[in-house]
Fold these 2 entries.
Entry 1:
Amino acid sequence: MKNKNLYNYILGIADNSLILGQRLGELTGHGPSLETDIACTNISLDLFGQVRSYYQYAAKIAGDDRTEDDIAMLRKEREYFNVLLVEQPNTNFAYTIVRQFLFDVYHYLFLTELQKSHDVTLVAIAKKSIKEVSYHKRFSTDWLKRLGDGTTESKQKTQQAVNDLWTYTEELFYTTQADNAMISEGIAVDVTKFKANYYQNVNAVLTEATLDIPESKFFQKGGKQGIHTEHLGYLLSDLQYMQRTYPNMEW
Amino acid sequence: MDMGVVRTAIFVKEVVHVQITPTYSGCPAMDVIGDDIKMALKNAGYHSKIELILAPAWTTDWITPKGRKALENYGIAAPLNAEADKDVLLNGKRLVTCTNCKSQNTRLVSQFGSTACKAQFQCDDCQEPFDYFKCLK
């Protein structure tokens, strides 16, 4: 493939949305209330829509006969480049909200920068997606404040989720070889540039939610290189089941 | 056309090229809209090619007055301006007009509704639950 770096770069962006979308989709019919259930699955649908645009573009770049569905459904665990944060399970609603919030703040800043890319297709997807993501960010921010500044139990559970998921935040700012190659061509976003801004935004909301900002400096990474936590395999077996069982099936 | 989803329709060598753009990225209606356009043109005796475009990104500003009226008649409140939209979705203000009894004594039930483009409201006068088309700029 001629444009291997661009291809991998696009998968890196898209896989975050695919895996998070799948996690949120697990809540269909299982959300804590009807409204939050609908909200999580609506956000999931937005993310899947964005994913389609990215994968269609990646398939075009690959230039062979692979389709967006092949890219979404038929890769092995180590060929997914999403960050570890998004594959973490829906342990309870606090984890779902904290995971969403930590990703939304990043996603919003990321798409803001992606609009300045030299690649017109990525710019178009970014401009479309950011409108949706700003609504996601509002939802997760509002809920984080409600849960953090809520009852003793909701506060304790939310603090636990923040403490547990904090270890996956640093990876958002890790750049792979493909990322670096694309940054030098003016196509990719240099995520390291908004790292300080990210933590500033996150910390401000945590403070408002009367939650403690974790002090731990121990961070996990690996997802962007295809080395995942134990959770991804189970998620993929769910995601890929139909396509693996009935190859080429369509709705 | 009235929803601003159809962006252009031009003739190129006997074929109608139609460009459509989604309201939200994940809008599941795009395939149906594309198929319906193709079918309508076919019935009118034209070959057509449908293309999905993303830029410029769709906005609720593109819904025409006729489109807004059609939404209201169907029972979906048309989008307010950006500022009022924020007020009703985030600050609990009562500004959306009930599609059933025209009262403005309406409240937000859920920021997310039956589809990505809508939020759920209820009228406190006639009790009718209804959808509100969210403002997207």
Note: The two ends of chain B are 18 Å apart (CA to CA).
Entry 2:
Amino acid sequence: MRRLMSALLREREAGLVALIGLLTLAAAGRDPSFLSVQNWRDILVNAAPVMVLACGMMPVIVTGEIDISVGSLTGLLAGLLGVMCSTAQWGWNPVPVTLLILAGGAVAGLGTGALVTFARVPSILATLGLLTALRGVMIWVMRGNQIGDFPPAIRWWGTGTILGLPVLVCVAGGVVAGTGWMAVQTPLGRRLFALGSNPDAARLVGLSEWRLKLFVFGWCGFLTAVATLMLVGKLGVVDASVGRGYELLVVTCAVVGGVSIRGGRGRLRGVVLAVLLMVMIKTVLVFLKLGDEATKWERAIQGGFILLAVVLDHLAERRSADAGGHS
Amino acid sequence: MRRMWEVHRHEFVLAALLAGLLVGAGILDPLFVAGATQLKLSENIWEMAILALPMTLIIITGGIDLSVGSTMALATVAFGLGVKAGVPFWGAAVVALVVAGGAGWANGWLVTRLRVHPLLITLASLAAYRGLAEGLSRGQPVTPLPAMFCRLAGVVSGVPLPALYFAVLVVIAGLFLHRTPHGRFLRAMGYQERAAVFSGIPVARLRTILHAMAGLMAGFAALIYAARRNTANPEAGLGIELDVISAVVVGGTDIMGGSGSMLGTLLGVLLIHEAREFVNWRWSSAELNMVVIGALLIFSVIAHRLLAPRGRG
Amino acid sequence: MFIRLQNLSRRFGGVQALRGVSLDLDVGEIHALCGENGAGKSTLIKILCGIVVPDEGSMLVGGVPLAAGDVQARARAGVAVIHQESAAFPDLDAVDNIYVGRELRSRFFGLDRREMERRTRGLLERLGEDFDPRVPLSRRTVAQRQMVALARALSCECRFLIMDEPTAALSRRETETLFRIVGQLRADGVGILYVSHRMEEIYQLADRITVLRDGQFVCTDTPAALPRRMLIQRMVGRDAGERERAPARVEGPGATVLRVRGLTGERFRDVTLDIREGEIVGLAGLVGAGRSEVARAIFGVDPWLAGGVEVAGMPLWPGDVQAAIRAGVALVPEDRQHEGLVLAMTIGENITLAILDTLVSGPFLAGAPEDAAAREMIRQLGIKAPGPGLPAHALSGGNQQKVVLAKWLAARPRVLILDEPTKGVDVGAKAEVYRLVRELAAKGMGVLMISSDLPEVLQLSDRILVMSEGRLRGELPGATATQEEVLALALPDAMGVGHA
């Protein structure tokens, strides 16, 4: 038991798996159909866009920065996508529009990166400003309309299947695999961790801070565009609220997944599990059949999980300080 | 004079910007700067203005509090439930203040006990307190509220009462920050927390108190919010934390901690308020407003960097 | 000549850090670089590493000029650097620490983890360490981190190695391993530039010694031609009289001001000691022996688990700094830049920080008494500054240390604890710190001085306590103790055998 406890404390992933298991047991105990393939497919489909956003956010946080503008950027890109594709508006061909949106996301991310590296605006403030400003631009782009007539090529992102698997799940899986490989198996990934762990030392070994940071923000922007395509494809409708609050959800997932907000530490595995956990909560609440009002507590529960993660981190840190450490 | 400029250059620039904005707005539309208009528009400033005071102190110590908006919601709901249960409004108000103060204190306690960055703790309570407010109220507002209570946020002989409350609070906060030993302690904490600990400054206690104060002020802002709208709504303060932080940062407080002034915060609040209201007034465009506020925040940080005297750390 | 530095100059703000320095460094020899703090050593090293771009002058490696400020060009030319301990990546493991920035690649863009790991194990073995290289460095000791830094330098098969205070965090055994490796490298034809404040090391290792003073080149000579006394003279520009003993104490010691009984914490056990008025007690031991931890516990920054502390008969509570300060304890911490000073605040604000509660009228700060208090301390301690309004980061190391001292003297403590009070302080300022400490003791203050600089402990202390592995190992009289006696107590038993 003690060893189990200490494993849960040390390995964030183990704790998350245990929590997911507990929630599954509780929900399935109340209603066995929670275990159905359809239900898990729904959970994964709901988790997919958040998963992609989290893959963009993690490298940013690992280098010691933060990007809280992803929700607004999602909104803006969704709005642009709508205006460009909608037959009632510009009605452009969806293929170049898709490419344009992907490029736009990357450019926006690079712009954020330039604010942080060249204009030396702390990332929390730069992206706080963008959080407000981009949402404003988005509302202006939408002109109060709701856009719902997306061509099939866009809807494919959210509703299509590849070999029986939803496109959403395939794309998210690909992005997770790619990001994970980048973080652990490439020089670039290790350098991001090095930069976040000790920026001064990174300079001493000749790493280029501005290039790495531009990259992480650009990567984050690009994946935000990918997530936007997935989200719009899934929803089929865009209004002024698309993506609102995603920044907090994604940062929460990263933190709960064990990424250190000070930079330098974190594993994608943990983040993926955390996304799953956060997205599950709502479904579990429904399955527990506590009545309609129970879902009102979703945010309270999410907040509770962040606190839990933080407390666990604290305990684990104390342990490792007891075990080894320095003078 | 030269020294005044060196120490307060950010405040001078802000004051000049504010004056420029008002003069420009006055030329474009004289009605906007008329007393009655300003009085009417001032309704929208008080929650942000009151919350900016403790936020300035917290950011000066190198911390942050993202949960003030959610704490407002929690206090509003506590007040509403109290009124609904038949408690006299002053009793419900006390309950709301205690709940809000307690919520802030819990933030401070967790931050100092767990030694975790306040960004994380208050990110958690941002979700948790809003969730509690939504859960407890079932998402339903309580309305109407006692008329006597609503009058406390009204206008008496041309002066909005919240302005009076705010005037008292800003003077207290300013004196505290700039004229007492504790204000100096807060700056020391923000610049170098370890050194503050090694100088015998009760860092943990001060931090806890500041978060509790932020909670209490959020409770107070919640009461004003409820009284002004005659409704206790769990939507209260949604997203206001970002406005408040923007105002404080535009006011020249360094997000990294250490430096900042109450005068700057006051000017920052006014600048954001006037810019927002003018855009609303002239173009009645919420979206343009958001762009203006976001850009104001980013440019003020860049300007602060450029204006700052060289050589820190 | 392998490296040729020509006429290097560099200004930082108003300070000319380096003034036309030329230097030739060859392979196959150990070249020691000496100078006080502020002599320009670190600027020179930073230019060598490419972190700082000189205003004037050039650097040639193997006859080829190198672009100023290009860190990676140096690595390609075969120049490697071991920085001080702070240059590690605590969240990365040893493998990444050694290879980050010049990773081994496999096919595609991937890393060749296996090969890097194999080589890392080999390097660590060569350094006499066998820990798991896949554990994050934050879980390793300071000395092990230093070894990883050394392994990083070795891994690039460099032709020239720059070592900046490599032994600052090492134990004696590890230092000897390091010296063995350094000797081996020299025999293999690697050139080494060795920077250290420790005279013993310089004379043990160096083939040639170069002295810098005030940013200027003074001389280069062999150790034989530059005996210790002369070297110090060159460094300070005058005769500093390195080793004079404390004058024999005339009056007897006073009443006990600090009484520590059975104090036990996470890193020390059962520490019992007394300090009397007017007494300077040295606390010697190796780095990591638990000395600083004892000091921090007494001062209340860290809690203690068992035992007790009394100041002038008044018991203190664990973990209560305010109570300790009220009782009259003051601590000048080892880490001056982060714990001693608020660098961004002014000298005056730093000096009055601990006594601000007393400089008030009503609830508000009283400006005039505060200014007077700060000016008085600046005068008393001879802090070289135009006034109390200057930010503390603008001062030199020695003057910063005096500001920390001033902060606590203003609080009029009964017990003054000094943790490495002269670390990173140049020779001239050291002498002034010694003079001050003696004066304070003479006025009746009890002083507990932690220092790893043995000559300093011997020179100042009335009594010397020696700690090792978290315990007090013995007490020696200051007047007659020798370095050998102190070391014999300081070395943990297992290691002591070899060095007895």
Note: Residues 19-318 of chain A form a domain with the ABC transporter involved in vitamin B12 uptake, BtuC fold (CATH 1.10.3470).
